[in-house]
Structure formats: structure tokens, C-alpha cells
Amino acid sequence: MSAIATASLEPGSQSAAHAVAHALPRDEYFGDATPGKIGMWIFLLSDAFSFGGLLLAYGILRGGAAVWHHPGEPSLGIPFTAFLTFLLICSSVTMVLAVAAANEGHRRQTMLFLALTALGGIGFLTGQFHEYFGLTPGHGLVHEGLIFGQSAYANTFYVTTSFHGAHVLTGTIYILVTLARTAAGKTNANDIEVLGLFWHFVDLIWILVFTFIYLL
Amino acid sequence: MTQGHASRKPYWIVFGSLAILTVLEIIVATPSVGIPKKPMVLALITMALAKASLVGLFFMHLRSERRALKLTVALPFLFPAIYALVLIAEAGWRR
Question: Is A111 a residue whose pLDDT tops 60?
Fold first, then answer.
């Protein structure tokens, strides 16, 4: 019976050749996919439905509203959010490079790319804080008159983007914990791949949120 | 799990495509460009779905997964998709 081999990221292991840590039986239908990976995909599917529910609710409210954007409420800053979108796309690239490095057993390279990805997440969260509250006095949507509870426009915006922001925060903590565990030699390539799935999902959802909430 | 030195080139191609599509989205959504509402909405949704598919297929490696996993992930999206189409049809009927 063939088995699933996963590159270990223990200190000193620089190649995949001598770095086989786990051996699981191959599944007839799912092949090489580990239980952790299948579990993450199922979780992401349920999470996608949560976002789907929020976006559909947004569609229903907006489609049925006589006035969507009330006078006095600010427009959303598209150029700044486009920059945040680009930041998340960049962090997806560094994450996929971390996964590739982990698959090849390159521990230091994996850690470097994980750190860069976490920086992208921290940058995004800082940007979102600035968008809501302003890093400098007088700025931020809250100060400009987009108040939670005052309109469907404000409510759908804050609920959807902050739910996504909570995912970025969770993802960033998940990356930092995995980075620390990798530094201690306690992870393998599969751990990095499962983490990567979560992070790419956060990017994927933002692509849809950016289009539906900001651009449409 | 793929081991050995796989090419990073597809990742950079996807990165470039995502960046270009994002710029195109912003251009299409700019009011002064003057694209009528319906084609604009259609173009924006198409580009967003294309970008999401690129991330799923290449960054999340869904492209190289077994059929069972692909179907497990993709098929359930038919339900929200049908619901969204019903909503759009209903909104169109009301107008």
C-alpha cells in the first residue's frame, strides 16, 4: 500500500530526501489529501456559506432599498482599499511561496515567507483600522458620518468587512503561531499547506467583498 | 503532497493576472469612464469570479487535487449560486 509522505521542517533538514515524518494510508477517493487538509476545506466551505449569507443579505437589502446611499454618508475610499486588496494578493503570493519552500524542506525560507505573509496581514489590519477610525485625528469613516446602526448601507458595510477583518486577524495569529512552531521544528509541510488554504481563502473572500461592497 | 523543486512560474503569472484584473476592475467601476450600469455590473462580477477562481485553482492548488475533493468543494456552491440567480430574477421582475 502506498502512503502519503510529508516533508518535515525540523531544524537542520534542508532537503525533502531525508525528511519524511508522517505516513498515512492513501484514500481511494481523496488520494494524497491528508485528513487535516480535507477538514480545512470542509471548514472553509462552511465559512464561505457564512460570507455567502452576508453578501446575499446585502444584495436583498440594497436591491430593495429606495435610497441606499443617504445624504451625509461618505463614499467608500476605493483607491485606498484597492491598495489593501493588492497587499492581500501579495501576501497570498508569499504564502504560496512558503508552502512551496516547506514542500522542499527549506525551513528558513518557509519561515521568511511566513513572516512576510504575517506582515501583509498586519498591514491589512492597520489599513482597515485607518479606514474605520483613522490613524490621524479627523479621518476614518466613523468620523465622516458612516455610523453603524444608522442605515443598511453602514450596517452591511461594517458587518461584512469586519467579519472579514476578523478572519485576517485570526489568519495572522495562525501564521505567527505556525511560524513559532516552525522555528521550534514542530511543523511539517502539511501544516504549512493547511495554513495556506486558510490564508488564500481570506484573500479569495476579500476579492468578492471588494467587488460587491466597494465597486458595485 | 508534491515534493521536489516545483516551478514557481505559475504563481507569478497568477499574481500578474490578479494585479491586472484589479486595475481593470477599478477602471470599469470609475464613473467618469462612463460604462453603462448593466455591462459594468456584469464585467465586475465576471472579473471577481475569475480572480477568485485563479486563487482557488492555483494558490489553493485545487487544480491538482483529486476529483472527489474538487467536487466536494465546488458542488455546494450551486446552492448559493441558484439563490443569487433567483434574487436577481426577482429584483428584475419587481422593476
Answer: yes
Dihedral (Cα; B31, B37, B42, B45), 10-degree rounding: 50
Is the residue at A206 inside a domain?
yes
Question: Which residues in chain A touch residue B25, judged by CB atoms under 8 angstroms apart?
Answer: 210-211, 215
Closest residue, chain A, to B46 (C-alpha)? A211
Asked whether residue A50 is domain-assigned, the answer is yes
Which of left, alpha, beta for B3 (phi over 0: left; psi -120 to 50: alpha)?
A: beta
B12 to chain A: which residues are within 8 Å by CB? 93
Nine-digit cell string for A123: 498591514
Question: Cα separation of A143 and B67, whole Å?
Answer: 50
Q: A8: which strand partners?
A: A188
Q: ipTM value of the model?
A: 0.90
* Residue numbers in B near A5 (CB within 8 A): 1, 3
Residue with cell 443598511: A152
* Structural domain includes residue A26: no
Mutate to test the interface with A, among B13, B23, B38, B55 (most CBs of A within 10 A): B55
Give tens-digit pLDDT for A86-99.
999 999 999 999 99
